[in-house]
Design goal:
- The chain is an alpha/beta fold and 160 residues long.
- The protein has one domain: 3-Layer(aba) Sandwich (Rossmann fold).
- Helices cover 39% and strands 15% of the residues.
- Strands 2-1-3-4-5 form a five-stranded parallel beta sheet.
- Strand 4, helix 5 (138-141) and strand 5 (146-149) form a beta-alpha-beta unit.
- It is globular, with a radius of gyration of 20 Å.
Length: 160
């Protein structure tokens, strides 16, 4: 009579094996996607939201790890925020800096770039297309950080 769901031919040992392999992959960060910290001026949140949306595409090798910081750089919570940002940057292989007219004015972006370099992370700057005049801050140029349009960002990340 009726069909059934059938059983699984996997034993409990096989299931544990799969769990162990999954845990190992997660610990190594070897999920096939690059864990990327994105640094941006809060004024650019709408543009960055679009960039984050690209990372949700299965074919895109990026997974963003960031915090949107609205607080002033010298606020009472700044030290706590810097520690949280340091933790996030440490989890990533690369920091991507979104460039706009507001980037150079952001003390947070400058700090995130400097911290990323200090931690030995790769840093790449990106823009939405034609970078606006004056959008490449001195802390990007002085550190010889590569600048690419975001349409080429996935290709650049693949060169790691």
């Amino acid at each position: 009579m009726g069909g059934g769901g059938g059983g699984s031919s996997r034993s409990l040992g096989d299931t544990r094996n799969l769990e162990d392999r999954a845990k190992e992959i997660l610990q190594r960060g070897d999920t096939g996607r690059k864990n990327v910290f994105i640094s941006f001026a809060y004024e650019d949140i709408d543009d960055v939201t679009l960039l984050r949306g690209q990372a949700k595409n299965e074919n895109n090798p990026m997974e963003f790890n960031d915090l949107s910081v609205k607080e002033p750089f010298d606020s009472q919570r700044a030290e706590y925020i810097r520690q949280r940002l340091t933790d996030r940057i440490n989890q990533c292989s690369t920091t991507v800096v979104y460039l706009s007219r507001d980037t150079a004015k952001s003390a947070w972006v400058r700090w995130e770039v400097e911290k990323s370099l200090q931690l030995g992370k790769r840093v790449i700057a990106t823009h939405s297309g034609d970078a606006p005049v004056g959008a490449v801050p001195d802390f990007i140029e002085n550190n010889k950080i590569k600048v690419v349009p975001w349409s080429k960002l996935a290709d650049e990340l693949g060169k790691e």
